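Q: What residues go here?
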């Protein structure tokens, strides 16, 4: 994951994605991470995943796709740290995709992102 200031990369992170990372998220529980343009719109300091910043998925386009396909879009997509019982894993968390559709970083990286990124920051998630 790249953290940008304008066109300049200021940080780069190894991440873990949803357990089924190929293709965009379309349905609740599909294990995929959404692709597209969203906003980091609110945060949870006491998340069970060592802090979490919410991604504004689903947007209107996602909801319309799900409605037409007879699906439930899902939600609750976050950038977050590690769960309490797995904090010992540290940077090795990115060796496999394990989330339910979120973007996971190490706890130290989450602390850094927490300080560098404001609510309302745009995020573009690409394959």
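A:
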């Amino acid at each position: 994951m790249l953290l940008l200031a304008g066109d300049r990369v200021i940080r780069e992170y190894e991440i873990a994605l949803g357990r089924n990372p190929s293709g965009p998220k379309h349905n609740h529980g599909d294990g995929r991470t959404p692709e597209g343009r969203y906003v980091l719109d609110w945060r949870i300091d006491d998340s069970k995943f060592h802090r979490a910043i919410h991604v504004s998925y689903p947007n209107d386009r996602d909801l319309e796709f799900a409605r037409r396909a007879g699906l439930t879009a899902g939600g609750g997509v976050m950038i977050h740290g590690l769960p309490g019982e797995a904090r010992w894993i540290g940077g090795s968390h990115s060796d496999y995709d394990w989330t339910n559709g979120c973007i996971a970083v190490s706890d130290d990286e989450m602390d850094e992102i927490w300080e560098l990124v404001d609510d309302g920051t745009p995020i573009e998630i690409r394959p």
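A: Context that may help when evaluating the design: The longest strand covers residues 36-44. Residues 60-69 form the longest helix (10 residues).
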